[in-house]
Structure formats: structure tokens, C-alpha cells
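Entry 12.
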Amino acid sequence: MAERDGFFPQTSQNTVKRLPQRGHYDRATIYPILDAAFVCHVAFVQDGQPFIIPTLYARQDDSILLHGATTSRMLRHAESGGALSIAVTLVDGIVLARSVFHHSINYRSVVVFGHGRLIDAPEAKTAALAAFTEKLLPGRWDDARPPHPNESKATSVIAVEIESASAKIRAGDPGDDEEDLALPIWAGVLPIAQHYGPPIPAPNLAPDIPLPDYLSDYLDRQNQNAAP
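Predicted 3D structure (C-alpha cells):
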């Protein structure tokens, strides 16, 4: 199937088969989910053995960036051009139905398929490491010490081009059967939201170092977004 503008083609690889109405294939839905999470799970097969590794990641345009020790089995597999599948899930609520069968979770998830390539050009590698740091906290890269040459040498950075992807989303109320609606059982949704607590200074932090503005601004934005 040819790719529509802004959409990944639906193939046997990425098509959502169970509850297909929950499937989404547009970048406008997929990329915000990828950008909202911090940890992905990377799946690959090596010598007939399947592996799945949780790891930090960042998105750079149409690629997922992975990084870690040069000795990492996952990164060596990716560097060799091996196939990868990457999954991200955000949990938004517990769905409590009147029947056990219809209990569920409200979630937003993405599955990505692609092949890795090593980023070894110095400027591109530095830009990728900056993307990781900025993903954790915008403004941090310019404030923290950059990597020493030996630290950069010990780190592999891989770009996985998003060749195929799909999102699957469940939102809304319980889907109880009509005959269960009269049961005297509470039903509804228990929302779940990511919470940021107050910053905790390192015990060896000099007392005259204030909280950086970019951190306090970030917390203000997150608290505003989390407000009902």
C-alpha cells in the first residue's frame, strides 16, 4: 500500500489486528506518544534467541535514537543493520467495568519497526547525545559538562529509521454489556497521570547553587498540563 502524506503504509507488519478500530498510522498521532515517554523496549532476535531491552531513547525527526555502552549486545545488533522492533506505552487510567471480562486500561501505545545504523561522525554524534539530554530535561545540555572524549568513545549512538509504525489507543468508559448495566456495582475510570515532585538537591551540592530556571520553568509547565 502506498504511503499517504503523513501516514505510514499499513502492511502485514504494522497493521493492528486485535480491535483494529483502535489503530492509528499517522505521524500526528504516533510522534507525540513517542515524544511523551522516556523509556522504550527494544526487541530483536540474535542467533535464534529473542531479547527485549528497556532503555532510554529520543526521537530525531523520523528516527529513534538509542545509546549505550559500545559493548551492548543490543547496540551491536543494531549497528550491524539488524532488524528491530521498538515499543512505547503510556498508561492513562484503569477501566473498572461491572464485569471482570470488560476491565481494561486506557492507554496510548506505539510499535516501531526499523533497522539501525551507527552514528559515528563527531558532530552528528554530539547532536544525538544533546537530543538525549534535552529529552530528559530541556535546557540541560547547555548547563551540564559535555562528554569527555573517552566518555564519547565508550558510547555507541544508533539511529533507527522509522520504516513502519502504528499506534494503538484505548480511551473512554467501560464497555459493559447491556444486561450488566443494572448491576449494583461501581463502574468508571481511575485516571493515572505522571507526577513530578519537588526537586531534591544532591547531598554534596554546594548550598550557593540555585535551582536552574529551566528546571523550575519545566516543572511549572508540567504542573499546568497536569491541572484538571
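Annotation: The first strand starts at residue 23 and ends at 24. DSSP finds five helices and ten strands in the chain.
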